[in-house]
Automatic annotation (TrEMBL):
It catalyses: 5-methylsulfanyl-2,3-dioxopentyl phosphate + H2O = 1,2-dihydroxy-5-(methylsulfanyl)pent-1-en-3-one + phosphate. The gene is mtnC. The lineage of its organism: Bacteria, Pseudomonadati, Pseudomonadota, Betaproteobacteria, Neisseriales. It comes from Amantichitinum ursilacus. This is Enolase-phosphatase E1. Pathway: Amino-acid biosynthesis; L-methionine biosynthesis via salvage pathway; L-methionine from S-methyl-5-thio-alpha-D-ribose 1-phosphate: step 4/6; Amino-acid biosynthesis; L-methionine biosynthesis via salvage pathway; L-methionine from S-methyl-5-thio-alpha-D-ribose 1-phosphate: step 3/6. Gene3D superfamilies: 1.10.720.60, HAD superfamily/HAD-like. GO terms for molecular function: 2,3-diketo-5-methylthiopentyl-1-phosphate enolase activity; 2-hydroxy-3-keto-5-methylthiopentenyl-1-phosphate phosphatase activity; acireductone synthase activity; magnesium ion binding. Keywords: Amino-acid biosynthesis, Hydrolase, Magnesium, Metal-binding, Methionine biosynthesis.
């Protein structure tokens, strides 16, 4: 593992981080969260069939499929989407509700790499704006960072972004996020384990670094000109933010 700190980055005023493979082992979502939700999709919807949340989920399913559904048909559709690893809104909503219950009763605790909390705390103390940009929904992001093995980290972040801001492989998404942060693109640093996302951020004028965690091979190989690192504590800033 490399221990060298990267050359200092100048004029950074915000750091936006991905989650899977960046702050959190990639297998937590794949091997813990998704398998936890999958067998509970049907039981949750049956138990809460008369709730507003369940009715909204079924309505969303009907919008996605353009046909009406009975309760059991809705459950079958959700399970099919889950098995196909589809990122469909009603499935994501229900997964979030199931995860919320699991986090609340202690069944779920999100692992965060040990170098992440002190780095985030240091950057916040320097006056940087910290944000999350993940394909997981904003409620799911907040659940994860609210129940980590390092405690509740939500207070370190002031902004949360998901794919309602646009796809993570599209430069326009990063331009939109920079506009929301009210910062020029060159003042924003993005951290991700996905080379395609790093390239998209760079295409929008952001600084971007590729995280290559030793226990989590990157989903896409680094591209020429991309800077890779293993840990957040390898990142150096040229000066404190005014």
């Amino acid at each position: 593992m490399a221990n060298d700190t990267l050359p200092p980055l100048a004029d950074i005023r915000a750091i936006v981080t991905d989650i899977e493979g960046t702050t959190t082992p990639i297998d937590f979502v794949r091997d813990t969260l998704f398998p936890y939700a999958r067998p509970r999709l049907g039981s949750w919807l049956r138990t809460h069939a008369d709730s507003a949340e369940a009715r909204d989920i079924i309505t969303q399913i009907e919008r996605e499929t353009a046909r009406s559904h009975t309760l059991e048909q809705a459950i079958a559709q959700l399970e099919a989407w889950s098995d196909a690893d589809r990122k469909i809104l009603p499935l994501k909503v229900l997964q979030g509700l199931i995860w919320a219950a699991g986090y609340a009763d202690g069944s779920l605790v999100a692992p965060v790499y040990a170098d992440v909390p002190p780095a985030l705390q240091n950057w916040q103390a320097l006056g940087l704006t910290l944000a999350v940009y993940s394909s997981g929904s904003v409620p799911a992001q907040k659940l994860l960072f609210g129940h980590t093995d390092h405690g509740d980290l939500r207070g370190l972040f002031s902004h949360w972004f998901d794919t309602t801001s646009g796809g993570k492989l599209e430069a326009t998404s990063y331009r939109q996020i920079a506009a929301t942060l009210a910062l020029p693109p060159s003042a924003v640093l993005f951290l991700s384990d996905h080379a395609g996302e790093v390239a998209a951020a760079q295409g929008a004028g952001w600084h971007a670094l590729l995280l290559t965690r030793p226990d989590s091979p990157p989903p896409v190989a680094a591209r020429p000109g991309q800077v890779a690192l293993h840990r957040f504590d390898q990142i150096a800033l040229a000066a404190a933010v005014a």
